[in-house]
Design brief:
This protein is mainly α. Helix content is about 90%, strand content about 0%. The chain starts with a helix and ends with a helix.
Amino acid sequence: MEDFKSKMREKITKETIWSVLTKGVGFVFYILLTVYLARTLGTARYGKWNYFYSIFTIILILSSMGVNQSTKKYIAEYSGTGKEKFVFIDSIIIRMVTSLLFCLIVVIFYKSVGDIINRPDIGTLLLYSAPLLLLLNTLSYLKEVFNGNHDLKYTFLITSSEHLLKFIFVVLLLSIENHIYS
């Protein structure tokens, strides 16, 4: 019994450390990106960025459709049974189909969204953000898979990669936006 308690204590300690590191890295990268954007864009363009990013975040939330959370639940539930492989295969197919569907919706309706909000420039940014939608959905999916398997060190690696890629994508998106509107 004592051996079980010590193994559980060790597992919980290790997972807690990885979880805190993951949240810490995400927070630091978020702050760095926010500071970079605020200093690079200036007041008016930073407001435009926030407007765009709020719309993008709504689309991102809608496009997840609960697939990631369901995958985490069923990966954890079937862990060690041999069936988790089938959960992974089926869920990644669903994740890719729904992500591609929402990317297609963004590509088709970006101009209409820009017209509805009376900001065609935001619509154009939405068009260019379609690959980011696919990337973030995929990374979020992988994080939930690793959380379901309790492989939190991989969640840490994916979170770090996600924020680095997000920063690179933002810099590219801003350079495209500068090129179009300057």
